[in-house]
Each structure stands twice: as structure tokens, then as C-alpha cells.
Specification:
It is a single chain. The protein has seven helices and 22 strands. By secondary structure, the protein is α+β, with helices and mostly antiparallel strands. Strands 13, 14, 15, 16, 17, 18, 19, 20, 21 and 22 form a ten-stranded antiparallel beta sheet that branches. Helix 1 packs across helix 6. The protein starts with a helix and ends with a helix. The protein binds zinc ion. Zinc ion binds next to loops.
Length: 426
């Protein structure tokens, strides 16, 4: 009987996932109307013109491009003087695409100049009759994408293998910056993400939208993340977990942004050959990074020291409150002075090799009540959770997103073994 109920439950879950998926494709994919007549570009019927497409090159100026295409000087002057707010001719950038629509008659005079500010936004300079300029946007289609991945080596590589925009690596590492140590991911850690991809003309990728929901499973512990605005007046958006806890902590996990190597951990029993294998405790956490990498404050606070002393080299110490202070050693140069107030994430200096150090790194020291402790083992205080009055609303909002996440399947990593190669190349 037990088994029977189990089977029914499993079936129900499977069916609900299936159904959800259908709802997802029909309702959640936001499709803005796209132009159906293919001969129209930038709002012009291109069959009426001779079309020239190129990119801005070194040494190009708007004036020269126009003169070359038979636009007279007074018109060029009008554009550069009267339409600065719309189109500042001095700011055209090398590498940006532009299109010139020329008259179809023998004079081949430029009639319209279109400058592409980015993949979505463009500026039109209409040179026919009285000259004018305006900005416009291409029609963008949003396509929701679901991804499930398993970590093999590191996050960015795994996402790259799944064909996910690198920006999503950054977004994800920022969402979980306080709760998951991306320097210590393990094989088998896995994640799921729901986000939008933007497309122009149905096919040209134009960047990612914000992450709508995520799940990260580190060492088998699942942490969901849902964006939620807790203060609509101040427009404060944070990511919260399935228990309405803020994923943000009062301290960042590392003094360097994503992508650097944890080279030595806090270790009171460390023995080093250099000191004849005697115990030389290491009361810091070392993050190796190239010289010049920005070092950031892990929490808001007041700079109490910014100086150079002995083996510490150039360093900064920040007092966060009555309990915690943090210290950052071996800087090439400090960016802040004693007495200055810094915000979490502010750059306070750059990685260097001053003091006793074998290579470029920042030695991060975490002080609690005047004693140095291991920040990676410290239970760091969380930022504000969702207030009781908003809890019901939050649960109602995230429940369907959570169901959708739960239905995403993990793409199993492909390992290149000899066996695989044999089957692929018989
Ligand atoms: Zn150190």
C-alpha cells in the first residue's frame, strides 16, 4: 500500500511539472510585437535607398563621413550645434556600427545617418529637408530561459559550457556573495536559474535580463533566491531565500570580487619550511590576485588605520561596529585615509607585495572583540529579513517561481573520457 501511494505522489509531481512547463511557455514568455515587413530597418523602407553599412574607424569624424557622402557643410554644422543632447558628434566611438541611407539617384547623397549606440538603442540623423535628429530603440523580444547545471571545475566554466552569458556568472556570484564561498565550490554543487534573454529581430542576442529566481545547492544544502522589493519607496531590492531570510550578510565573504584564488586559510597550527617547520600561526585569509586588483571593504565602517608597518606592508584597518573590525595587508597602495567612512564594496586599495609576502595577494584579517578569528567559519550576521507584514505576500509571490525551479532538470556535465572519444570517432 505504501508503495502504491508513493507511485501516485510521484506521478502527480511529474504531471504538475509538465503542466507548469506549458503555462511557462505560453504565459511567461513576453513577446513584444516585432516588425513583420523585413524591408523596414530603423523605421525606413530600405528599398527606397542605397544602403551603406560600416563601423566607425580610427580617425573617422562625423563631419568627414558626411562630407564624403555629399552632405553640405551648413547641414553638418546644424547637427553638431543644435542636436548635441540627442547626438553629440564628438562622442561617436570607434567600432560602433552605422548605416547611411543614400538617395537612389546618381548623386548618391546621404539622406539618413543611423548611429547604433548599442545593440538596442540607435540615433537617427535625418538629413532630408530641414535637418533633425532623434533617438529610437529596436524592438526587443524577451525569451525566458531555464538552466540547470552541475559544477565540474568552477562556476564560470560550467555556465560557459551551458552557453550562458558571462554576465550571469557575475549576477549569480553577487546574489550568493554572502552565503556561498565561490572560492570553495565543490564538484557536484549544482544550480538552477530562471532569467530572460533579450533578442533583436528574433535572432540577435542583446544581453540578459535580471535573474528572476535561482537555486544553488552547495554541499547538498539548497539555497533558493528570489528578488523582492521590501521598500518600494526607496526601491530597495534584495534576494531572499525560501524562509524569507535576506541572502545579504553584513559582511562580504571576500575582500576581492569574484574570480580570485584563496591561497592560504586562517590556520593557527601552520608550519612553514622557511621558519624551520616551527608553528607560525596564520591569522589571516590570503586571496591571491594580480598586482593592482582592487581590494574592497567587506562591510560599511570607519577607517582606523591606513599606514605602512613592518611585515604587514601597506595596510588598511576598518572598524565596523563595537564587535568587528577588518584589516587588509600587503597593498601596493591604499585608496582611503584614516577617519574616512567607507561603504561595503568600496575600493580601499590595490593588491600588491609590500611587507613580508612571496607573491601578490591580500591578507584579510577579521577581528572580533579584539581577537583575530576565521571569517570563513564565523556565522556572519544577516541583513534585515522580510518584515512580518510582507511575509504572506512574499510567499505568494515566490511559490510559483519555486515550483518552476523545482521542475528544471540538471544538464549533466560531459566528461571527455577515452571511451567517449572512441564512440564518437569509430
Ligand atoms: Zn596572510
Amino acid at each position: 500500500m505504501r508503495k502504491y501511494i508513493g507511485a501516485i505522489l510521484a506521478l502527480t509531481l511529474w504531471v504538475s511539472c509538465k503542466e507548469d512547463k506549458q503555462v511557462t511557455t505560453e504565459e511567461l514568455v513576453q513577446v513584444e510585437p516585432i516588425e513583420k515587413v523585413p524591408v523596414t530597418r530603423f523605421g525606413f523602407n530600405i528599398e527606397e535607398f542605397n544602403v551603406v553599412q560600416d563601423t566607425v574607424r580610427w580617425g573617422d569624424s562625423f563631419g568627414e563621413l558626411m562630407l564624403k557622402n555629399k552632405v553640405d557643410y551648413p547641414k553638418i554644422a546644424t547637427i553638431s550645434q543644435n542636436f548635441k543632447d540627442t547626438f553629440d558628434v564628438r562622442k561617436i566611438m570607434v567600432g560602433k556600427p552605422y548605416t547611411i541611407l543614400k538617395s537612389k539617384d546618381t548623386s548618391e547623397t546621404a539622406e539618413v545617418f543611423i548611429y547604433e549606440n548599442d545593440k538596442v538603442n540607435y540615433t537617427v540623423v535625418d538629413l532630408r529637408d530641414s535637418v533633425f535628429a532623434y533617438r529610437s530603440k529596436r524592438k526587443v523580444k524577451y525569451v525566458e530561459r531555464e538552466v540547470g547545471g552541475v559544477i565540474t571545475n568552477n562556476l564560470s566554466e560550467t555556465l560557459d559550457n551551458l552557453g550562458v552569458d558571462y554576465a550571469i556568472t557575475i549576477d549569480l556570484s553577487e546574489i550568493y556573495a554572502w552565503t556561498i564561498d565561490f572560492f570553495r565550490l565543490e564538484k557536484g554543487d549544482r544550480f538552477k536559474i530562471i532569467y530572460d534573454e533579450r533578442f533583436i529581430n528574433d535572432s540577435i542576442y542583446a544581453g540578459r535580463g535580471p535573474i528572476k529566481a535561482a537555486l544553488f545547492e552547495h554541499k547538498g544544502r539548497p539555497i533558493y533566491a528570489f528578488p523582492y522589493v521590501t521598500d518600494s519607496l526607496k526601491n530597495i531590492l534584495d534576494y531572499f531565500d525560501q524562509d524569507a531570510n535576506n541572502l545579504r550578510r553584513t559582511f562580504l565573504r571576500a575582500p576581492i570580487k569574484f574570480g580570485y584564488r584563496l591561497s592560504s586559510r586562517y590556520n593557527l597550527k601552520r608550519r612553514i619550511a622557511y621558519y624551520g617547520y616551527k608553528v607560525r600561526p596564520h591569522k589571516g585569509t590570503d586571496y591571491a590576485a594580480p598586482v593592482g586588483t582592487p581590494i574592497i571593504a567587506t562591510a560599511d565602517g570607519t577607517v582606523t588605520e591606513s599606514t605602512r608597518r613592518g611585515g604587514n606592508g601597506k595596510y588598511v584597518k576598518i572598524r565596523h561596529n563595537g564587535t568587528y573590525s577588518t584589516q587588509y595587508l600587503h597593498m601596493r597602495k591604499q585608496k582611503v585615509k584614516k577617519g574616512e567612512f567607507v561603504r561595503q564594496g568600496d575600493v580601499i586599495g590595490w593588491v600588491g607585495m609590500t611587507g613580508n609576502t612571496g607573491g601578490p595577494h591580500v591578507c584579510y584579517r577579521f577581528w572580533k572583540n579584539g581577537r583575530q578569528v576565521d571569517p570563513l567559519r564565523e556565522k556572519l550576521p544577516a541583513a534585515e529579513p522580510i518584515v512580518d507584514s510582507l511575509r504572506a505576500d512574499y510567499v505568494e509571490y515566490f511559490t510559483p517561481l519555486k515550483e518552476q525551479l523545482d521542475c528544471i532538470e540538471y544538464t549533466e556535465p560531459i566528461f571527455e573520457s577515452e571511451e567517449n572519444l572512441v564512440t564518437l570517432n569509430p
